[in-house]
Amino acid sequence: MTRLLAVLMLALLWSGAAGAGVKPDEILDDPVLEARARALGKQLRCLQCQNQSVDDSDAPLAADIRKLVRERLLAGDTDEEVKAFLVARYGEFILLRPPVRPATWLLWAGPFAVLILGGVAVGLYMRRRSARGESEIDDLSPEERARLERLLAGDTRPAG
């Protein structure tokens, strides 16, 4: 019974994956052009999904962009010309990997800068904490110390 359930679950997962991305009516007859179109589709962001490539997305806008890429390739455009056309039309946001240049340095270096600043902040905090030592920890009062000793000895009766 569990084996049948596992097989059914796998079949459901596979059927869901088959529905996403490029549809059969979008596939080009020329395998070389289709490979180029798929490679370009993996480099372009779905403007509706935002964190998915147009090659993987099943959003209607992604399908339109995939068709547009294939039309441009059939017209004889190079990969760079197709990307330039799409950037002119949709902006650099359509590129999953924007180019590295002064305007995008913060985008590329930002995560590393935050990581480094976080490490420095943790290091400073730990240094200050260890420099303080035990002096800021309040000592136990005589009553608290007696209760602690009773608890450690196994005596759980209240004092008095």
Secondary structure layout:
Elements: H1 2-18, H2 31-43, H3 60-74, H4 79-90, H5 105-132, H6 142-153
Helix pairs in contact: 2-3
TL;DR?
It contains six helices and no strands. It has 160 residues and is mostly helical.
Can you put this structure into words, describing what you see?
With 160 residues, this protein is mainly α. It folds into 2 domains: 2-99, Orthogonal Bundle (Helicase, Ruva Protein, domain 3), CATH 1.10.8; 103-153. It contains 6 helices and no strands. It has helices at 2-18, 31-43, 60-74, 79-90, 105-132, 142-153. The termini are far apart.
Number of E strands: 0
Number of self-contained structural domains = 2
At the third CATH level, what is the topology name of the largest domain?
Answer: Helicase, Ruva Protein, domain 3
Strand content: under 5%
Residue stretches low in confidence (pLDDT < 50, at least 5 long) are: none
Computed over alpha carbons, the radius of gyration is 31 Å
N→C terminal distance: 64 Å
Order of helices and strands: HHHHHH
**At CATH's second level, what is the architecture of the largest domain?**
Orthogonal Bundle
CATH homology superfamily name of the largest domain: Cytochrome C biogenesis protein
> How does the overall form come out from the CA principal axes?
elongated
CATH class of the largest domain: Mainly Alpha
Class from secondary-structure proportions: mainly alpha
Number of helices: 6
The amount of helix comes to 55-70%
Main beta-sheet strand count, sense and barrel state: none
The overall pLDDT average reads: 81
